[in-house]
Amino acid sequence: MNLKQLQYFVKLAETEHYRRAAESLYITEPSLNRAIRDMEGELGLRLFEKKGRNIYLNKYGRMFLPYVKRSLQELDKGTSIMQAYTRPDHGRIILGFIYTMGYTFVPELITQFQAIPQHKGITFDFKQGTTSQMVKDLKDEKMDVAFCSYVEDEPDIIFYPISEEELVVAVPKGHPLSNRGSVSLKELEPYPFISFSKNSGLYEMVTHIMNEADSHPEVVCHIEEDNAMAGLVSSGYGVAIIPDFYTLKYYNLDRIPIANPLDKRYLFMAVYRHANMLPIMETFRNFVLSRWQTGNI
User: Fold this and answer.
1) What domains does the chain contain, in order, with CATH numbers?
2) Which of 105, 182, 262, 263 could share a disulfide with 257, CB 3.0–4.6 Å?
3) Does residue 148 sit in helix, strand or coil?
4) Which residues form the HTH lysR-type domain (predicted)?
């Protein structure tokens, strides 16, 4: 049973007349007759009965008709949605971002984007998570774009730098290091250390800079989310190296600049290299990159 047969069936049910239905469908009457016979043969039931020169739906046809109509309506709806995605000014983007980007970066960026009249028809669904989870979602095409850390050995993902993020040492209020103007990483060695978990985009970087500084404090726990790390530091559980995100200042901790020279920490816009990039995604990608290049992010 194919789409045309279903469309022919609905039209014949509406007109109850082969010639008028065939003319409306721009096909010959024998072609319509054959399509209906093939459908009835596949179902093993007659759907129409003759009444003089006209035909009418029998009880099986009446039972079948609402299912066919609903199926065709859903197909039309799906087709319209898919066609909308081919427009550069209408559609929905699934955007993922790491936790620290949810305070100001993403809300401000999306507000700027949607303030442009041509972008009013573009909407977003948001997901938060770790870099490793978002890279997986990109490759599974469950997400269109992600703001996250860079990941080595991911040739299927394109990473565009879009923001810088400063790392600081976080210690509980009243800690022996609290009043320092800056702290070397070696000075953290005597204190219990809270580390990011391995699925965090920051794990590799923090591990690298600690090894470079020959600083090997005792790791008391691993955690993936920045706010949870800040809460543990505030409670006196340990010290940490953490991004200086917007709400960190509201925790009961002190933020201290790192004395060691560090490479710049960038955040990235990540997209799946093999995805069919729709016009709305090109519009959004170009907007984000233009903001980064002009220093407006």
Assistant:
1) 3-84 (1.10.10.10), 90-164+266-293 (3.40.190.10), 167-257 (3.40.190.10)
2) 182
3) strand
4) 1-58
Give the whole-angstrom CA distance, residue 280 versus residue 284: 6
Q: From CA 235, how far away is CA 238, in angstroms rounded? A: 8
Q: Which amino acid is at 202?
A: L
Contacts of 192 (CB under 8 A, 6+ apart): 217, 218, 220, 237, 238, 239
- Please name every residue paired with 254 in a beta bridge, in sequence order, or none if there are none: 171
Produce one character per residue of 53-71: b if its CB has 16 or more CB atoms within 10 Å, e if not: eebebeebbeebbeebeee
DSSP class of residue 186 equals G
Q: How many CB atoms lie within 10 A of CB 82?
A: 11
Given a contact cutoff of 8 angstroms between Cβ atoms, the answer to whether 18 and 33 are in contact is yes
| pTM for the full predicted model | 0.68
Q: How far apart are CA 266 and CA 202, in angstroms?
A: 11
Q: Can you give the pLDDT at residue 16?
A: 92
Residue-level pLDDT at 160: 96
The mean pLDDT values, 10 residues at a time, for the chain of 297 residues are 94 92 93 95 94 88 95 87 78 92 92 94 93 94 94 94 93 96 97 94 92 97 93 97 91 96 90 90 94 77
Task: Count how many residues are written for the chain.
Answer: 297
Report the 3 state secondary structure along 71-118. HHHHHHHHHHHHHHCCCCCEEEEEEEECHHHHCCHHHHHHHHHHCCHH
- Cα torsion for 102, 248, 201, 188, to the nearest 10°? 180
